[in-house]
Amino acid sequence: MSNDIAAVYADGWSRVVATMIRLTGDWSLAEECAQEAFATALRVWPVDGTPDQPLAWLTTVARRTAIDRMRRAVVERAKLREVAMEPAPWTVDSEIPDDRLELMFTCCHPALNVEAQVALTLRGVAGMSTAEIARAFLVPEKTMGQRLFRAKQRIRQAGIPFRVPPGHQLPERLSAVLHVLYLLFNEGYSGSGELCREAIRIGRTLAELMPDEPEALGLLALMLVQDARRAGRTGADGALLPLDGQDRSRWDRARIEEGAALCERALRRGRAGAFQLQAAIAVCHATASGVDETDWPQIAGLYDHLRRVAPSPVVDLNRAVAVAMATGPEAGLALVDAIDGLDGYHLLHATRADLLRRAGRDDEAAGSWRRALDLAPTEAERRLLSDRLAAAQRTGPRTAPPTAPPPGG
């Protein structure tokens, strides 16, 4: 792929797909037409040069492809006329001031369940692969592929329309949009910071658009505080560092203060939701001077509240870590061993290994370390787990906190 096309693809793929979804109502056809448009660009642009408006060029090619395919498939004439007469992309009046946020609200259609809304939006708007979406949902890639296929079938069979929603319909779509942004941020948090920056940018726009929605403020606070710790997460060699090994002087204090203020502002509304509680947990970690000074009982209490608001096995795992730090490793182990549904999640086994080592059960810990290593999805995480296993074998039990997923992650 040429540099020009690669640059357009990074930002343009999701926009072309979302436009075609809105024009055709067929998710699979939209992706196929976008692929055809980019394939055409690969043939034409190196010869004729990059057009002045590459996104408009790609959308036009994709639109013509859609009309041609629908004609050849003998799609009903009324629908063909509707597509052919659609106004040009992005000329629709909208109360949403950002193109990408507008796409998210458009694709998060309430006729689908929230999981399907989020998964399809990550695919169409964020351009994430099926494997990446599966990792975000902690399910096998095959399972996620089947879910995406069924969701697309439902869209086609039910004739679900994709149009930019008016302002009064935004609240009913907000929950799914927030989850899209959170998973987009998480994908960037474990890889490129570019996705994190984009998620935060959109989060700021959303908080301005819906200032009375405390969960929008809570998500923005959570992303800011987590991103503020980015510089301390890696060592000089680029290796990941656990919380107890991070240099807190490298954390962005201004960003932490901004996130803490937003979190407090959201919680004052008296409607504490999942993202506000996760933000409060992140603030507890970020404002402590060290691991030993962290208020672990308070964090455990916040996880108790989070379990009631948004129960999940990952929340249970995080809570087990906080309980272990507050009352001892055996209490945490009992909670970890009671968790169902995370056997394929590497951080469950890494957490269990750390707790076993702190409890003096080194042989059992080694087995859990190896299981975590087998499941770790990235080379950076495998390096971290290998280093911790080697350190444990050299030094024996210690009292630092175990490896754990991000708050509420």
Please characterize this protein's 3D structure.
- With 409 residues, the protein is mainly α.
- It contains 19 helices and no strands.
- The model is unreliable at 83-92 and 402-409 (pLDDT under 50).
Low-confidence stretches: 83-92, 402-409
Order of helices and strands: HHHHHHHHHHHHHHHHHHH
Shape: globular
Q: Taking Cα atoms only, what radius of gyration do you get, to the nearest Å?
A: 23 Å
Largest sheet, strands/sense/barrel: none
Structural class: mainly alpha
Q: So how many helices?
A: 19
Number of strands: 0
Keywords:
19 helices; 409 residues; mainly alpha; disordered C terminus; globular
Give the topology.
Layout: H1 3-24, H2 27-48, H3 54-72, H4 77-84, H5 99-107, H6 114-124, H7 130-137, H8 141-158, H9 170-189, H10 193-209, H11 214-228, H12 253-267, H13 274-287, H14 296-309, H15 313-327, H16 329-337, H17 346-358, H18 362-375, H19 379-395
Give a brief rundown of this model:
The protein is mainly α and 409 residues long. Helices cover 68% and strands 0% of the residues.
